[in-house]
Amino acid sequence: MNTLKKLSVLGLFVVGLSACGTDPKSAAGFTLPEGDVKRGKAAYVEYGCNACHQHSDVPQLESALAAELSVPLGGETARVRTYGELVTSVINPSHRIAKRRSIEVADETGNSKMVTFNDVMTVTQLIDMVAFLQESYELSPHHNTVYPVYWHPEAQDK
Ligand code: HEC
């Protein structure tokens, strides 16, 4: 290997390392607990997500709104490719919109037309809903973070 090649390999290694650990805002280690798909589907209907979305399992509600706004969820999309992006699109819909500024899905200020449920939805409902939606998306493999056990209640008795 010549010096130039060696240097570029080292460079890639350093870039890789910094991507993993040093960014304090890194999403590394972010994992929601396992959700319940059935309860997730119920919450999806309860919050009226189907007012604006079509889903293979839950058809969109018929309304005047549906005629002008219909965003399909699931499959293989360019917008939601990872678990992180799926969670983000539910709790921070304008995150991606800000970059896209698409006319049909965003308002004049560039914010998503998707309403926010962050003040009403429980964390458990979010977890369940992500589990429900995750089944219909073709996401890149996501490996849940494995945390070491620092304290175990049973270990105390031994
Ligand atoms: C008032 C209409 C509206 C409602 C209600 C709504 N959404 Fe959305 N949603 C949108 C629009 C518009 C987009 C596309 C633009 C964007 O990414 O914000 C979107 C995008 C999404 C995406 C990303 C889609 C993709 O594949 O890129 C997900 C996931 C999603 N919504 C989930 C939900 C869930 C879960 C609920 C119910 C808790 C919900 N939405 C309720 C309008 C809505």
TrEMBL record:
Concerning InterPro entries, the annotation shows: Cyt_c-like_dom, Cyt_c-like_dom_sf
Give the GO molecular function terms: electron transfer activity; heme binding; metal ion binding
Signal sequence segment: 1-21
Keywords from UniProt, A to Z, are: Heme, Iron, Metal-binding, Signal
* Domain Cytochrome c positions: 35-137
Q: What protein is this chain from?
A: Cytochrome C
Query: Which PROSITE patterns does this chain map to?
Result: CYTC, PROKAR_LIPOPROTEIN
Species, as recorded = Pseudohalioglobus lutimaris
